Amino acid sequence: MVLDKILRAGEGRILRKLKAIAEQVNLIEDDFTGLSDGELRGMTDEFRQRVAEGKESLDDLLPEAFAAVREAARRTLGQRHFDVQIMGGAALHLGNIAEMKTGEGKTLVSTLPAYLNALAGKGVHIVTVNDYLAQRDAENMGRVHRFLGLTVGVIHPQMPPPVRRAQYACDITYGTNNEFGFDYLRDNMAWSADELVQRGHNFAVVDEVDSILIDEARTPLIISGPADHPTRWYTEFARIAPLLERDVDYEVEEGKRTVAITESGVEKVEDQLGIENLYESVNTPLVGYLNNSLKAKELYKRDKDYIVTDGEVLIVDEFTGRVLHGRRYSEGMHQAIEAKEKVEIKQENQTLATITLQNYFRLYDKLSGMTGTAMTEAAEFHQIYSLGVVPIPTNKPMIRNDQPDVVYKTEIAKFDAVVEDIAERHEKGQPVLVGTTSVEKSEYLSKQLTKRGVPHEVLNAKHHEREATIIAEAGRKGAVTVATNMAGRGTDIMLGGNPEFIAQAELRQRGLSPIETPEDYEAAWQEALEKARQSVKTEHEEVVEAGGLYVLGTERHESRRIDNQLRGRAGRQGDHGESRFYLSLGDDLMRLFNAAAVEGIMDRLNIPEDVPIESKIVTRAIRSAQTQVEGQNFEIRKNVLKYDEVMNKQRTVIYEERRKVLDGADLHEQVRHFVDDTVEGYVRGATADGYPEEWDLDTLWTALGQLYPVGVEAPDTDDRDGLTPDHLLEDVQADAQEAYDRRELDLGEGADDEPIMRELERRVVLAVLDRKWREHLYEMDYLQEGIGLRAMGQRDPLVEYQREGFDMFQTMMEGIKEESVRLLFNVEVQIAGQETEAAPAESVAVAPAAPAGAAALPAAVAPVALPDAEDDRAAARRTPPEVPAALAPPAAPPVFVKGLEPRRPTGGLRYTAPSVDGGAGPVTILDSGAESSVGGGAAQAAHGPAGGSAAGAGARPARNAPCPCGSGRKYKRCHGDPARRNAEVE
């Protein structure tokens, strides 16, 4: 309560400031109403010029810009912004959350700050909760912006990258939080600047900000793909392992859980594989498969460490003996066991990119949001996003009658009373909106209403356009609507019917569209709207006479916001309305505050099951329980953010480095530092202990020889008098730099007179960055999985995660340097004009030596994954799959690298995101459009996120989806037009 008072301390001052802005807009309104359409549109160019010249800031332009938008909305939509809407728009522009009650016109409010901030030319993102609302708002509110000369885009699932890039290039872009977030992650998986679609994060307006930034923030956005381990090697080594004899061909240390192959074992393996040297660089990955197969044979026992059920290997917890469903051994160990047991070898998913919604939205230079219910979460908004919550007054006084809660002993008695109440209200013509906490409860209530003969509609969170129609009709006489979640529906419940929705439907039936036929649409709009208003006028009066909309809640939600969202649907714009919640002692929330005590009181008083109790004590106890649950959920979200903060700092470093490469930065000096640092690491490691005569310089020189062509000889043991590590390091570093200069001269220059080495540096560094970062994400995933156990040793898991994560990041950065240097010195380059069949004309082929007998790899268009690193530990890691072919660059680059080229993944990428419409958990969607629910989440939209392929070859897009040809028109009006298809057939 104290914090709440502190957060609201400056509320009056802010409201006075916003009211003063609204008065300024009113004072100059007449100056804009007298302008012609052309003159009003010309104001946009004038505003842009004033901003570009630096004469005025956006804050200075605010009154004039808002007045222009208000007049444009009046001419296009037939709606004039209320003063409170001007206040809400100003609050958004100033970087706040505007809390505006349901029915106050938040969607129209967003046009004000969107227009003003678009004048700077850096783009504005308007974030909605589903694809239907994004499309609808881009069409309807876009009419205002297009009238004023701005461009408006919308992001759809499965939109191809070139079209997606064009949408982001618009002044204002609509889309969902998941689409914006996944595009950010895909941009940071891109191989060239041509593939980037987003152009920065300037300003965002988040609709239903509490749903997106609070409810969905517990689930991070994750792009994952199958780890690229060829399963045939697991099978091959599962065949070889039984042929090897323990203590002869290999040794086992069960205490340390390690295995070591002997000389005789190596000979047998080489004989079985038909290779000459197992430890040759090209065969290094095979050592990891061999070690895993021997561990599976000796260290992992069936029915002790794991069991096999229905063709699946399941891990057994060594402490509890319980089967750990859904868990798998890491580093390819689980696949080795599956090969040993001769069951299907399943590929694991590896995280390729991830970010929490909190950290994504904190990328924006300025963030704002709007919702009807934000004050209860004001502390979290301030703490996580540095956003203030400004409650905007309603345009008309609220006269809704909120009845006290009634509590029944059993759920059956409660629902019987609910059905009775609904039937009575329906009979007298009063519209009823019923809120439930789950789909199951909605279905149960629907069956009871059907038995009672009450006609009704059920919102099922699957077809957004259909839902909008249901909501638009929910205020009609006698309508009964059952909904699971009323947040983010995006359509007003207006008594007697929604005239704007009716007018839009009529114009659509006439084939008019604000996008495709804007002039005809605008010409017909006012007449259609007036006709719709007349059609609902009589019914509106009848509904008001019946008492207005009645909101009935069948249970309290965990969050007060959800209850307020439901209740807020009644009493919009000064309408009559009523609300009441029906509870039972069996409700989930009731059990949180000791419902047994209440039940005992009811039993002692001998209160029948069908007789409710009304008590302010119960209501206060419920509110207290909700506050406690909200606090628990806040802690969960803070915990997610704390762990992601560690990753976020690392992610920022890597993504900034990637962007430098993609932007064509000269990496020459940086790579020279890589050379010096790598050589220093080798030399310091070899000279750390003992006297110079004891240093093993032969081993050091062998290691350096694998790194670069060494041009100096190792000092003999007799010549080491006075030799120091610094002197040795200075000689070797100078030699390495000379070798690098020779390498650059040997490669020569390209067609643009730039040394070929510059492009090679960019390609190699980008490929190494990607590979090492994905390996690092994989290792961090497993670190976080088990870090909670550190608490048993009286150590803070978060501190341990930060410490070990930092150490792992440092190791990764050193690995990036070493592997980049090794590749830059050792890849083979073919100059243009000396092409082979494997290399296309006018390109430079760069390829490491291929293993004997290996098939030639196809020419690449972009690097994505490196050859396996030449050490056992890296060989056991998973190589990340490529990004889908849809994101491949359009043309072959001037330099391509065999071994760094993209490899086709054996399965589609997966996109994990928060479930929509209040679902119970995250949803994982395949890039092919198939979807699978994880954690019981609700189904996502019909199509997966962008970047995935269409659902099968030749799959026809939805009629209202953008045409794949890139025209920007809907499929039904482009290649899906029957007339056009028939003409093409003829």
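Above is the first protein from milestone M3; the second protein from the same milestone is given next.
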Amino acid sequence: MEIKLDKIEPHVALPVFHLVGSVADEMQRECYVVGGYVRDIFLERASKDMDFVTVGSGIEVARAVAQRLGKGKATLAVFKTYGTAQVKTREGLELEFVGARKESYRRESRNPIVEDGTLRDDQLRRDFTINAMAISLNKSTYGKLLDPFDGIGDLQRRIIRTPLDPDITFSDDPLRMMRAVRFATQLQFDIYPDTLQAIKRNAGRIKIITRERIAEELMKIVRSPQPSRGFKILDETGLLQLIFPELAALKGVDNSHGRGHKDNFLHTMQVLDNVAGASTNEWLRWAAVMHDIGKPATKRWDNQLGWTFHNHNFIGEKMVPKVFGRMRLPLNEHMKYVKKLVGLHMRPIALVEDGVTDSAVRRLLFDAGDDIDDLMTLCKADITSKNQEKVKRFRDNFDLVKRKLIDIEEKDRVRNFQPPIDGAEVMETFGLTPSREVGQIKDAIKDAILDGAIANSYVEAYPFMMQRAASLGIEPVNKGKLCYTTIDSPVGVLTVACTTRGIALITTQDDAQEMLSQLGKSSHLDLAEASLPLLTHCTQQLQQYFAGERREFDLPCFTTGSEFTMKVWNEMFKVPYGETIPYAELAKRAGSPKAYRAAAQACHFNRLMIVYPCHRIVASNGLGGYRGGTQVKQQLLDLEKRTPTITADKSDASC
């Protein structure tokens, strides 16, 4: 790295530096910009955080700077306990002021005893030479670099080194050991040999540092371009065993019968770097760090299989909350995300090994939800075999899994899906209280959808629920009844009725009660005015239809009639929303071109108006008979031909 000192000039030419220097001169104070801002000038990294050291009170200088900037252009915060002050400017700059000081430490604490000092005293207390450089802001020496420990040279040599004896530096403030590792990782520098050895000698002192501060440094390591660098240094220095023993436990290779397993620590580091190369998501990187932490507890020798780590993903998943809690990482949705990915990370790989089935892919989509893409990134990064032919084969198969994921998601909509029937509906339908049986029925519906036994639709889930309950000896509360309700609609009051098998009647007829009675007698059912989940689904979907928010219905229907009548009704579903066909065409589609009168009659006696869209079947005059009347038919056609509020939803299954 070539360092040119003329890089300083444009950076200290900023108006804010001249203002601070002018204030310091008026107060007859030495004043310098120090630390990370100076270092980053030479690293060509942007920084808005500026640290200033003044010989004397830093708080007094900060107050004067804030006054000079003026009200509305700066805010001042004073921290008397620490002898510091902060000025935030309207432009987003953060100016930190502190008086030059020297520090001494007690063995049992990293909190220093502070005394006023000179600039050199202040530079001596800095952690590393590259952070101990200062640039004068006083007029007589404006822009002069003060670099007593050759920080410029260490930047050129790309090393991290302490200004003083590193044993004293790290013993006084053990957090500096973590900072050394973090800077080496972020900047991709090496730690100077004497400094590295001092970290090894003083590693045990890390125990006096709060876990929160250690977690902050670990987060910065994880966010680095090549985070494995930091974890490897932590391991080399002995710090890893002290702060993250679960990760350190992955180290090493055991041999039995001449066979060894891979070093799971080095494997984890490669996976971590692979993920870092593909994503800036820090929690996905944490998932990479922890994905194999269950392996030490599950390592076994099998005479036929060799070394095995069965269920290490599940063990690791259980370990994540404990590790996060001990390390003071957040126990919120981030922890749950890492926990989920650790638990699932073997699933895509298992699909590659065992062959890809639709059912397995559906279950993976359901369990991973919106995190499926991150899971696939992690799993692809987990392919680290030295056998390049094996890697290519796995990645080719992995691409097959990804294509399957896309195809099945588009077809079955199972990512984050909620089954069409929930526990509340199960309980209300069968008169149950929360119980094991409710869970069994719910899980059976979910599993049937994921296994592809039924579609992810209410029309298929409802009869499946009935069958599953019957197998458990559970009967619906409305068994033997024809239940009905009424709703208002743009075409008048609708009467809606259902049996345990599905929706049986939707009509605007004035003689709805007579139709209910006839249907009840013919089906041997008792009439009951009731509010049931099935009726609620029907009324909600009808209201969505009238609002222009639904084009197709997702309802189980109970219909009876001749074979030809059933063919006619089923052909109705194929007539597009808002379009019409003649009775003769309907008869033709039903397989009997000359039976158009029978087709017309089937429409007229349709008990499920709207859901079975017989209003889309017209006579030569454009209308034709309809059980609700030609006016109702025209109203429905006009409604469907208006400007829709939604795009046709192809995912809704027809009755």
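Note on the second protein: Residues 648-654 have pLDDT under 50 and may be disordered.
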